[in-house]
Recover the amino acids of this structure.
């Protein structure tokens, strides 16, 4: 019974992986959309399809999107540069017990 937990975990991980791979991705109802800025009919691109899947209803053509990116440059904030101290702490706390548990299973 002791080795069965590992096989159960592998089975559950495999089922989850298959679910992710085989999940049907929704596609927009039409092949084109109207740009919310210039009212131009445009074909969906991977960027606009992902935006549509996330629920955005105001989609922009490539030209308008590029112009918006030029007008709004990325500004790095203090929150972006903190270094992830919480992540490092969680890794330091969780990795040793995990290694110990795995080593205990196999040895």
């Amino acid at each position: 019974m002791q080795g069965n937990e590992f096989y159960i975990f592998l089975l559950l991980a495999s089922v989850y992986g298959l679910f992710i791979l085989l999940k049907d991705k929704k596609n927009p109802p039409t092949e084109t959309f109207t740009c919310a800025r210039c009212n131009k009919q445009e074909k969906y691109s991977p960027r606009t399809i992902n935006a549509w899947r996330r629920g955005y209803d105001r989609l922009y053509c490539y030209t308008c999107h590029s112009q918006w990116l030029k007008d709004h440059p990325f500004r790095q904030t203090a929150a972006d540069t903190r270094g992830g101290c919480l992540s490092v702490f969680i890794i330091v706390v969780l990795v040793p017990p995990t290694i110990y548990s795995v080593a205990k299973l196999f040895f």
Observations:
- The chain has a mean pLDDT of 84.
- The helical segments are 4-22, 46-53, 62-71, 85-106.
- The radius of gyration is 23 Å.
